[in-house]
Amino acid sequence: MYTTESQNEHLEDKNTSSSTTPQILKDSSISEHEETKETVLSQTEETKPQMEKTYSCPPQGKLNKLITNGVAFFMAWCVVWSFSGPEVLPGGNLFGLLIIFYSAIIGGKLLELIRIPSVPQLPPLLGMLLAGFTVRNVPFLSNYIHVNNTWSSTLRTTALTVILIQAGLGLDPQALRHLKRVCLRLAIGPCLMEACSTAVVSHFLMNFPWQWGFLLGFVLGAVSPAVVVPSMLLLQENGYGINKGIPTLLIAASSLDDIIAITGFNTCLSIVFSSGGILNNVLASFRDVLIGALAGAVLGIFVQYFPSGDQTKLPLKRAFLILSMCVTAVLGSHHIGLHAAGGLCTLALTFVAGINWSTEKVKVQRIIKTTWYIFQPLLFGLVGSEVSVASLQSNAIGICVATMSLALLVRISFTFLLMCFAGFSFKEKIFIALSWMPKATVQAVLGPLALETARSSAPHLEPYSKDVMTVAFLAILITAPNGALIIGILGPKVLTRHDPNKVDVELTKLELH
C-alpha cells in the first residue's frame, strides 16, 4: 500500500513537472516576443520625433535659426530707425554701413566656399574687398549707398587701432630677445628699402613729389599679419621649418614691420600736409613719437596692476581698458594735432601691459580678436567702396601696377640678401623673401587716410591721394592672394619637416643671429 502510494506520488510529481515545462517555455517565448515588440516600439518612438522635427510645422534646425536671425536683424533695424529716422533708410549713413558690412561678410564667406584641391585657402579679406568694390561700382546700388567721409574715416582709424593693439600684444619679448638681430633686420630693412624704392619709382613713373613718394612707400612697405600669421601657424603645426624657427621669426617680425611702416607714414603725412619747413616737421614728428611712447609706457604700467589679479572677469576688464584707452589715444591725438603720438601710445601701452600678464595675455588677445571680426568687414568693405572705376584714368592702373611691382621686386631681392648671413639654406632664404610680400590690413587703413586728409585740409592734393588709394587697393588685390598661395604651396616643398613633438622649438634654442 505504501509502495503504491509512493509510486502514485512520484507519477504525480513527474506529471506536474512535465506539465510546467511547456508553460515555462511558453512564458519565456511570450516574454521574448513582448521584449522584441517593446524594442520595435521604442525604436519607432525614437525615429518618430526625428521625423516630426524634420517635417514639423514650426520649422526647426537651420531654417529656424535663419528665420530667427533674420527677424532679429529686422527688429534691430526697426529700433535704430525709431531713434535715427532717415539715417537707416536708403541714402542714409547707417543704411550704407549696414549694406557694406553685410556685403563684406557675404563676400568673405563666399570666398571661403571656393576650395580648389591642393591649393591653399584664399584669405577672406579679399572677398570683403571685392564686395565693397562691387557695391560702389554697381549703378543701382551706388545710387542708394552713401557713407559720410567722417564716419568712414573714424571707423577705419578705429580698425587701425585694433590692428595696433594686436601688434603690440603679439610682440613677444622673449622672441625679440633670442631671435636677436635677424628679427630686426627682417622687420626694418625690407620696409625701409621698399619705401625708398617706391619713392624713386613713383617720382619718375607717376610724377609724384618726393614727399608723396615716400608717403606711398610707407603705405606699401608694411607686410600683412592677417595673411602671414595664419599661414605660418599652419606650417608650424605641421612641423615645417620649426627646427630653425622660421614661422616664429616671421610672426614676430610682422608686427614690428607694421610699426615701422605706420610710424614712417605718420611722419610723411605730417610733412605733406604741413605748411612749415621739412626740418620742423621732422622734429615735430619725433616729438609726437616721444610723447606717445612715454604716455603709452605710463598707461601700460597702470594697466599691469589695475584691475588687480583678485578680481573677477579679469581678461574682459583688461581688454575693455586697453580698447578704450587706445581708441581715445589714436582718435584724440588727431584732434589735438599730435598725429603720430596715438599709434605709438597704443603700441607702447599694449606691449608694456602684456609683459606682466604672462598666460592671461592670451585671453585678452582672444577678446581683441573678437573685436577685429567686427571691424574687419567694415574696414575692407569701406576700402573697396572708395575705389570707383569711373574715376580711374585709362593708363592709371598700368602705371600703378608697374610702380608696385618694381618696388616689390626690390623688396624681395633685399630680403634675400639680408637673410644670407642668418644661417638659412638657399631654399629657406627664397621662401622667406617671397613670404614677406603679402599686403592687406595696413594698406587698407593708410591708403584712404591720405585721401580723407586731403579732402578735409588740402583739396588741391586730392589727385595724389587718389593715386595712393588706387595703388593700395591694387596691392591688396594682387599680393594678398598670391602671397597666401606662395606660402601654402612653397612652404611644404622647400622647408624641412620635423615632428613637432620631438623638436624643441624653444626660442632659447634658436641659433639665429
From TrEMBL:
Basic and acidic residues bias located where? 29-38
Question: Which InterPro entries does this UniProt record tie to the protein?
Answer: Cation/H_exchanger_TM, CPA1_transporter
* Every Cation/H+ exchanger transmembrane domain range: 117-481
CC annotations in GO: plasma membrane
Keyword terms, alphabetized = Cell membrane, Membrane, Sodium, Transmembrane, Transmembrane helix
Q: Transmembrane residues, as ranges?
A: 66-83, 95-114, 212-235, 247-273, 285-306, 340-359, 371-390, 396-418, 430-451, 471-490
Q: Which domain of life does this protein belong to?
A: Eukaryota
Q: Does the keyword Transmembrane helix apply?
A: yes
Q: Where is the composition biased (Polar residues)?
A: 16-28
Q: How does it sit in the membrane?
A: Multi-pass membrane protein
A molecular function annotated in GO for this UniProt entry is: antiporter activity
- Places the protein is found: Cell membrane
One GO BP annotation is: proton transmembrane transport
Q: Where is this region: Disordered?
A: 1-56
Regarding protein family, the annotation reads: Belongs to the monovalent cation:proton antiporter 1 (CPA1) transporter (TC 2.A.36) family.
Instruction: Tell me what this protein is called.
Output: Sodium/hydrogen exchanger 9B1 isoform X1
Gene that this sequence comes from: SLC9B1
